[in-house]
Amino acid sequence: MRIQLEVLGGPLDGYIFQFNKRVQIGREGDVALGVDRFVSRHHAVLEPTAGGVILEDTGSTNGTFVDGERLHGSTTLRNGQEFIVGKTWLAITWS
Q1: What is the DSSP letter of 54?
Q2: In what order do the strands lie in the sheet with 88-94?
């Protein structure tokens, strides 16, 4: 599975991350959003599975939001779904 994570809004607007394995989102890590001061050092994890991509908030201070709701734990994302980490708006697609 080839996964693309596009920044739709926030300090890295227009930037695209590509990966095919489990990644850490945060100020540090595989998907480094360090310029967004509302992102925790280890904010969330994206993990590809046979059924899609799982998004898990890893105890962030400012939250991860999917469909306008704060994520507690994890959820399986749909292809093309958008979510917010800190003040960064992201869209995930895969093929």
Answers
A1: E
A2: 16-19, 3-9, 88-94, 82-85, 64-66, 69-70
- 87 C-beta neighbours (distance < 10 Å), count: 14
In tens, the pLDDT along 22-44 reads: 999 999 989 999 899 999 999 99
Please list, in sequence order, all residues whose beta carbon lies within 8 angstroms of the beta carbon of residue 12, skipping any fewer than 6 positions away.
Answer: 33, 35, 36, 88
Helix (H, G, I), strand (E, B) or coil at 49: strand
Average pLDDT, the chain: 96
- CB distance 95 to 19 below 8 Å: no
Residue 43: CB atoms within 10 Å = 27
d(CA 69, CA 41): 21
**Which tokens belong to 47?**
């993990």
What's this model's pTM, rounded to 2 decimal places? 0.95
